[in-house]
Design a protein that fits this description.
By secondary structure, the protein is of the alpha/beta class. It has a single domain, classed as Alkaline Phosphatase, subunit A (3-Layer(aba) Sandwich), CATH 3.40.720.10. The chain contains 13 helices and 13 strands.
Length: 374
């Protein structure tokens, strides 16, 4: 079955439409879509765990795992536009992280759901507007409404929050931590790609205002508001495990280097590529910048952050199970791209190497289908 046929088949199952038959609301499936930013696929396979992810494993045992799922792009903006529109970056024309304000008239699978009767909502990161300038994401309400979201609570990624205002920055200001956090981010990133940017240190934020914990809390609030008499779609979009590497306690220190996979060493083949090759250009940016102690520390922090996110997932699923319509609710999990984590002596993403392009994908169907693990 080709990609388009598979997508069509899965979409028909979700919206309750097959061979011209339109099912009633009670036959349609609710969907909780949970996405992450920079969670690499080989560290997100709950059946071959790098670190214990009990909530992810429990969900995976109820459904389908795609062990080798690959993103449409190893950068946020094009990958996230593909999620929304169903278009490849080559089709949308957005092939890298350029400043972009996606028009509300763009193709949108969410709009299709809304038009078919779904109540649609999103909490967390979208990155369908320009995060490189000072702005307030609450001014995006109309754009998100035009794209099909009836309710929205949007925030930016951790680094973009230096310039972007939203609900979470208001909460930081109310509790008096905004200036200290923004100062910390500015100090990390003021000199670009350098040691300060990836040094593991403690967050100045209290746990309740740590972005991923905050998103889970607001996602649960939205989940509890979802209707019971019509189908609904809730997208909870985490900003982690994206850098800065600053996992808070009690998750900080849960892992050790002995249990983690060894770094994939640079054996010189990338350095021998043509100078016009994008992978070679990115490799050259990192050349001789990473020290072993930095790589060891950030891989530990990344593993700790995955467990933080796993715990947030558990909280969301626990609340979902309290709903009377949970047996009619599917859950899907994925990430926009991966993270190099020191492999080939590089960090972050943007390459088409395995750590950067492979992402987790788990789908747990409604309990009413009684589908076994695959």
């Amino acid at each position: 079955m080709n990609r388009h046929k598979l997508k069509e088949k899965m979409w028909e199952k979700l919206i309750g439409k097959s061979k011209g038959k339109q099912y009633t609301n009670k036959d349609r499936t609710n969907l909780i879509l949970i996405t992450f930013d920079q969670w690499r696929g080989d560290w997100g396979d709950p059946m071959k765990p790098v670190t214990e992810l009990k909530e992810l494993k429990a969900l995976a045992e109820e459904g389908l795992i795609i062990e080798r799922c690959y993103t449409s792009s190893p950068q946020c903006v094009p990958a996230r536009i593909s999620w929304l529109t169903g278009m490849r970056p080559s089709e949308s024309g957005v092939t890298y992280n350029r400043p972009l304000d996606l028009p509300g008239s763009a193709p949108s699978m969410i709009r299709e759901l809304k038009d078919l009767g779904w109540h649609t909502a999103i909490v967390g990161k979208t990155h369908w507007s320009n995060h490189n300038i000072e702005c307030d994401l609450r001014e995006n309400k109309k754009r998100l409404s035009d794209l099909g979201f009836i309710e929205s609570r949007e925030i930016a990624g951790p680094r973009a929050l230096q310039k972007v205002k939203c609900d979470i920055t208001d909460d930081w200001e109310k509790t008096g931590v905004y200036k200290a956090h923004i100062k910390d981010l500015a100090e990390r990133y003021k000199n670009g790609c350098n040691e300060a940017a990836w040094q593991v240190r403690e967050s100045v934020l209290p746990n309740s205002l740590y972005p991923d914990i905050w998103i889970a809390s607001k996602g649960i609030e939205m989940l509890q508001k979802m209707p019971t008499k019509k189908p609904w779609f809730l997208w909870i979009s985490f900003v982690g495990p994206h850098e800065p590497f600053d996992t808070p306690k009690p998750w900080k220190g849960r892992n050790n280097n002995e249990q983690l996979p060894r770094v994939i060493k640079n054996n010189g083949w990338i350095d021998r590529l043509e100078t016009t090759c994008e992978t070679k250009k990115i490799r050259d940016l990192w050349k001789e910048k990473l020290k072993k102690e930095h790589t060891d520390a950030l891989r530990l922090d990344y593993a700790d952050h995955l467990q933080l996110l796993d715990d947030q997932l558990g909280k969301i699923i626990d609340i979902a199970k309290e709903r009377t319509d949970y047996k009619n609710t599917a859950v899907a999990i994925t990430s926009d791209h991966g993270e190099m984590l020191g492999d080939h002596e590089m960090l972050y993403k943007s390459t088409f190497l395995e750590p950067s392009v492979r992402v987790p994908f788990i789908y747990s169907p409604p309990q009413k289908t009684n589908q076994s693990h695959k």
